[in-house]
Specification:
By secondary structure, the chain is an all-alpha fold. It has one domain. It has 25 helices and two strands. It has helices spanning 14-18, 31-55, 67-82, 95-108, 119-122, 126-130, 137-141, 157-163, 177-208, 214-222, 239-260, 289-295, 300-322, 333-352, 354-364, 380-400, 405-429, 440-448, 455-462, 474-489, 493-523, 538-548, 555-577, 594-598, 600-650; strands spanning 270-274, 283-286. Helix 2 runs parallel beside helix 21.
């Protein structure tokens, strides 16, 4: 019998593999653990926007396993074990305490740049700054855009955000209160839906499907307790760890030295490209050290699926090009195929969870035979009520802003599917840096046809363009990992829940204010980042295109969407029907993603290493090899931190992004 789709290969569960058992009496949720996580998260609220917009260095927070958060947390772990424990007055922190700090820091800081805090400030005011007599935005769009959704530029609130405040002038901060409140309320409602979904599905993911959660496994390894009298973290003792650690450190150190002395030879991480012909897109061979390290913990069938479908997709793209079918940049049919596969994948996984969801519903209705929810983040009743209330509010919000109810429901449903799909990819494949296949707003307009949607509905959709322009589902991914990690560490989720919510809200508000402050202080248009440059104009460029050139539904793209969904059904059935079937269908959902294609060599290295390890030495050799890949990830993050400090000291406002964007 084929295991359930998404069930990991027969390996010990993360905690069984990496953690020494600790007594039940050990401290699991303490004020100092919460404080440590909150401090790290709040530091990211300032550091993440500064690193991205001003310093131009590697962004501290950009993925669901960001180097800035992990490195800062790791420094805290090392300092606690190596320094604080030497003092008699200090009671050593336990592994669950470190886990609490990690969860609060990663979830709390997840919205500090591209997901919310950056574009919510810049994108909603773009019409005032980028409008001109030539593009006629004000003349065409002003009647379609509710005034309560946009900051007024009467007092130059938008102009000075992009150009900076003239000397001697006072910035009109109050002009942002109303639009940020309304956009923030919709964002909060959408995040509440994700929050409730994790509350509903956590038990199914962790206990029923037993997903691998590769990122969680890496975190579990890094919070092992040292032996009595030892002040070094256990992961730092094996020689294999240091061998792996110095591989990325060597590459990054040589790269860093070349900034001062260009003649210093570098070890390349871009090893060229492989092409199957002139019509076929090239596959770039890049070494991304964190991808290699984390993918080693993923199910090898899942990693092979990513490799297989990426190569197959490249071949099909070239073959279609040779037949005269436009699948190049801008045509996007293959991304529509990915979106179709992603949609069916999410619906399939929700179908597999139907018994759990029904049992949770029975518990919500007060039935005694429902699933126990006493140790979930929230009760199942609260989760269902939050989803219903948040969806109702979002529909109301979009309706009063001009959208039809049908378009609003389609937008919310597809947005939720996209977020769940990206989260699933992270939970199974360890993918921590991948965008949605398509911009959701563009997809809805193309599928429905701009000629078939009212101008008011399209204007309402354009208000959410930023919300799905660079989706990586950071909040849902990090919160889902927190659910898995809390299960392993036996952390009371009801106590953890308020801390995560409060820290996330505080961090996001601080990051939003600081982004606004940076724009005002430096002149946001001086930054090269898309959040201040092209991003604020994109919604209104698209809206003008839809209005001035109405088109029917694009059935070619819809066809590719259907093909993707059909292929996902086919490969899922094959996986169930034949025990020998080697392909996990999850790779079909992201095989045309830019970040997956760029990381194909890194996935290949991880897959080969894990396959050989399990074949040659089984679980025992796998356990002995783990420190090597932990060292690779830690070395990559520490090396990135070194480069960041060099940029901060010697290259302010002209830094070097060594961590891929």
């Amino acid at each position: 019998m084929r295991p359930a789709l998404g069930e990991p290969e027969i390996l010990p569960y993360a905690g069984e593999l990496f953690m020494d058992s600790e007594p039940n009496s050990v401290a699991r949720f303490t004020g100092r653990a919460v404080t440590a996580g909150a401090v790290i998260s709040l530091l990211m609220a300032i550091g993440a926007p500064f690193s991205r917009y001003v310093l131009y260095s590697s962004p501290l927070v950009f993925t669901s396993f960001s180097w800035g958060v992990v490195t800062t947390w790791l420094l805290f772990v090392v300092f606690e074990m190596g320094v604080l424990r030497r003092f008699r007055f200090w009671r050593p922190m336990s592994s669950p305490e470190f886990a609490v700090a990690f969860m609060i820091a990663t979830v709390g800081s997840s919205l500090t740049t591209t997901e919310v805090a950056g574009p919510i400030v810049t994108h909603i005011g773009g019409i005032h700054y980028f409008a001109s007599p030539e593009n006629r935005w004000h003349e065409t769009l002003d009647s379609l855009l509710p005034v309560w959704l946009l900051p007024t530029d009467t007092h130059n609130a938008v102009k000075w955000l992009f150009d900076g405040v003239p000397q001697g002038q006072t910035y009109p901060w109050a002009d942002w209160i109303v639009p940020l409140f309304w956009h923030g309320s919709f964002t909060a409602a959408f995040l509440l839906v994700q929050f409730a979904l994790v509350g509903l599905l956590r038990k199914h993911w962790v206990e029923h499907e037993r997903l691998t959660f590769p990122i969680m496994q890496m975190a579990v390894e890094l919070i092992q307790q040292p032996e009595k009298g030892e002040f070094r973290p256990p992961w730092s003792r094996p020689r294999l760890f240091w061998f792996g650690f110095f591989i990325p450190i060597t590459f990054l150190t040589l790269q860093m030295l070349s900034w001062f002395w260009p003649t210093v030879p570098q070890l390349p991480t871009n090893l060229g490209a492989i092409s199957f012909g002139t019509e076929y897109p090239a596959l770039n061979m890049n070494l991304y050290w964190p991808v290699i390290g984390i993918a080693f913990f993923a199910n090898k069938e899942v990693i092979f699926s990513l490799l297989f479908f990426t190569v197959l997709g490249t071949l099909i793209t070239g073959w279609l090009t040779r037949l005269g079918i436009d699948v190049g940049v801008g045509a996007q049919p293959m991304q529509w195929l990915n979106m179709g596969a992603l949609t069916v994948m999410v619906l399939w996984f929700l179908w597999l969870a139907r018994r759990h969801l029904w049992s949770a519903a029975r518990r919500a209705m007060g039935k005694p035979d429902g699933d126990d929810d006493s140790n979930e983040f929230i009760s199942y009743r609260a989760a269902y009520l939050i989803i219903i209330g948040a969806v109702a509010y979002m529909v109301f919000w979009m309706q009063v802003s001009g959208s039809s109810i049908a378009i609003a429901l389609l937008f919310i449903a597809m947005g939720t599917i996209v977020y769940l799909g990206i989260a699933r990819l992270s939970f199974e494949a360890g993918v921590f840096h991948v965008n949605a296949p398509l911009r959701l707003v563009d997809m809805i307009v193309d599928a429905t046809g701009s000629a078939n949607i009212s101008h008011a509905s399209m204007a309402a959709l354009a208000q959410h363009y930023w919300r799905f322009s660079n989706v990586k589902s950071l909040f849902l991914v990090t919160f889902g990992h927190a659910g898995a990690l809390s299960q392993q560490m036996e952390i009371p989720r009801r106590r953890l829940n308020p801390a995560i919510v409060i820290v996330t809200v505080a961090t996001t508000l601080l990051a939003t204010w600081y982004t606004l402050y940076l724009g005002v202080a430096y002149g946001g248009y001086n930054f090269t980042d898309w959040i201040f440059r092209s991003g604020p104009a994109d919604p209104f460029i698209s809206l003008m295109k839809w209005i001035s050139n109405p088109l029917p539904a694009d059935f070619r793209r819809i066809t590719f969407f259907g093909i993707g969904g059909g292929l996902m059904v086919l490969f899922s059935v094959l996986r169930y029907a034949f025990p020998w079937w080697p392909l996990h269908p999850i790779g079909l959902a992201i095989c045309f993603s830019f970040h997956i294609k760029e990381s194909i060599l890194s996935f290949l290295i991880a897959w080969v290493a894990k396959s050989l390890t399990l074949r040659l030495g089984g679980i025992r050799l796998f356990r002995r090899t783990v420190p090597l890949f932990v060292g690779i990830v830690v070395g990559a993050f520490v090396g990135t931190a070194m480069c960041f400090l060099v940029d901060l000291i010697w290259f302010p406002m002209s830094g070097h992004a060594v961590e891929f964007k």
